[in-house]
Each structure stands twice: as structure tokens, then as C-alpha cells.
Amino acid sequence: MPAATPARGVWLHATDAALTGALRVLARQLAERPDAPPTWVTGDAAAPGPGEDLRAIDAAFDRFPTRLLVLAGPALPAALMDRARARNIALMLVEAVPPGARGGWRLFGAQPRGQLGRFQQIHARDEAAATALRRQVRDAVPVLPTGRLARFAPVPGCNIQELDAMRQSIGARPVWLAHDLPEAEADAAFLAHSHALRRAHRLLMIAQPRDPAGGATLASRAAEVGFVCARRSADEEIDETTQVYVADAGDDPGLFLRLAPVTFLGGSLTAGAPIPSPVIPAALGSALVFGPHAEGDEGRFMDQLRTQGGGRQINGPSDLGPAVSALLSPEAGADAALRAWSLATDGSEATLAVADAICDWLTLNGGRG
């Protein structure tokens, strides 16, 4: 029996490495669809594209049979587009902006109208870009003001039954979360809780240890400093007297992040310590408190949070209590949580719309095979 012909898929290619992450989020969105098409993402150092070498381009198309090539970035790769056309591969352009747009985008070469006419669809970054691009293509290609693609993947769900049970146990009490708390920062978190209790006497602290095996030690320390404590791994319930709940059963952290309108990012008070992703609590609508220590993508996101008012950066342990207290205020906390959520989920609707457009195009043009 002859080997089955591999399904032809969708190649997502960024001509700007900074957009590769957005295309990976789009690929994840496509992968969740029924009858999901095979996808391939290129454009950064981890997965570079074939460049302008025709043999490398042909080898790439041979390695990944492609029905639709989706491009994003500041330049149109002419050689790649030419070889796609020769192989009867359709083209789609996303996050498109017109020539001369601010930010240094160099989208077009010498003949922009001819290049643009090769696309089946163009998804512009905003309405102004769409209007300018429509003038370029003169209705030859559909141009949609889809928007900027999401840079962060959607937050996974959690166990709804567990979430409802926890909400019933907590009731109307105010809550804050010490998320992914290392042992070295436990005392700072407990001191902050003591400070915050002066303002909110029924306040519950959920302490989620970085290492669940350290739950017993964390609970003992909470009792030492005078708190009434319950441990999840010991099946101890939250009641009206519980002041600290140690979440040490290895649950999905999203369960507790959904319960807490204020979250402290553990590790951010310690130089060189790892920190959890700030994107997930922000996307779940929690206002964030974090220390001065973060690097890489987490540090960049936290800088954006700070400048946009989606969280509070503190200088040291003594600042944690006042920051938590301030964000527990309904007005301040709600505003910060909304700003954090907006930053973390920016572009999610555009990514969903592009995923829909890709799947619709595949279905209308001969199915997914």
C-alpha cells in the first residue's frame, strides 16, 4: 500500500523576529480547532526561515507541504512569495500597515500594488492602516481592519467544581494571593498580611508555596507568627477564623489566581530568583504586586504593567503590606486589575478572527487536506 500523502498545512512566517511569538499564539489557537490544520511557524533564531535562497525555499516547501502561507512583518519576502505562487500556494498577510507607518515598518518594495495583489486576504493592524491599504489594492484584495495579534496565549481553564467550592468556603471575604512563594520570602509575605489585616480584618491570605513539599513548614511558620492556618494538602477547610490558607496540594495555580483580586509574584523580591509568569494572573483579572527583580520577558511585561498602572512595583519587603492594602481598595484594585487584564489579553480578538479566517479559507478552498 502506498504511503499516505501528508496533509497540506499552514505556514506562518514572520519577517520580523519580534512577531514570531504572536504567530505561535495563532498556531496554538489553530491547533485547538476541530480538524486543525498542520501548522509551522518560522521567523526567529529558534526557527529561522529559508531566506532568499531559492533552493532553501523549495526544500522548505518540500519538507512542509503548504496550502496557505501567512506572512507577518516589515518586509515582503519576494523570493518566498514567488516560489509559493509557482507551487499554487495561497498567501495571506496579517498585522499589515501601509508604507511609511510609524515604527520603522518597511512593508513594501518597489511595486507595492503588484505585491499586494498576490494575497487572498490582508488583515490590517487598525482601521487607518486598512483604509490606506485599500487605496493601494483598489478593491482587488479584501482588506480587513482585524487588529494587532495577541502576544500572549489564552489562559487555560481550571476545575470549575473546585473553583465553586473554594468560592463558597471563602464567601464574601477579601482575599490576596502570595503566588509561587519561595521560602525566603515567606516572612515578608506574613508581615504584609499583618499590615493588611489592620485595614481589612476578615482578610484571607492564600499562600501558594513554590515547592508544595514545603507546605508544612510554611504552615508552621504562619502559626508561629500568630495566624490561624489551614492546609489544603491536609484537607483542612477554610472557615471564618482562617487567616492563612496554605495551597500546597499541587493544584493548577489558576484556581487560586481566579479567587484573588490582588496577587504578589513570589521571587520578585530576591535577586536572581525565578518568578512565575505575570501574564496569567493579569489575564485572570488580578492586580499585581511585584518586587524589583525580574528579567527577560517577565521583566518587560512587568515594566509595562508598572507604566500602565496594572500593578505596583515595590522596592523591598517592607513595602509589600502597604501595596497589598492599597490594591485591596475596590476602586484602586479594580482599576489596576482592568489595566492588567487589558495588557495581557490585548489582541486576543484579532488572533481569534485571523484563526477563523484561515479555517474558513481552508474549508472554502477544498477542505483541510
Automatic annotation (TrEMBL):
EC number of the protein: 2.4.99.12
Annotated metabolic or biological route of this protein: Bacterial outer membrane biogenesis; LPS core biosynthesis
GO terms of molecular function: Kdo transferase activity
Enzyme class per UniProt: transferase
Subcellular location: Cell membrane
Record InterPro entries: Kdotransferase (IPR039901)
Example GO BP: lipopolysaccharide core region biosynthetic process
Coiled coil: none
Keywords in alphabetical order: Cell membrane, Lipopolysaccharide biosynthesis, Membrane, Transferase
GO cellular component, one term: plasma membrane
Reactions catalysed, as given in the entry: lipid IVA (E. coli) + CMP-3-deoxy-beta-D-manno-octulosonate = alpha-Kdo-(2->6)-lipid IVA (E. coli) + CMP + H(+)
UniProt function note: Involved in lipopolysaccharide (LPS) biosynthesis. Catalyzes the transfer of 3-deoxy-D-manno-octulosonate (Kdo) residue(s) from CMP-Kdo to lipid IV(A), the tetraacyldisaccharide-1,4'-bisphosphate precursor of lipid A.
Protein family per UniProt: Belongs to the glycosyltransferase group 1 family.
Protein name as annotated: 3-deoxy-D-manno-octulosonic acid transferase
Organism, as annotated: Pararhodobacter aggregans
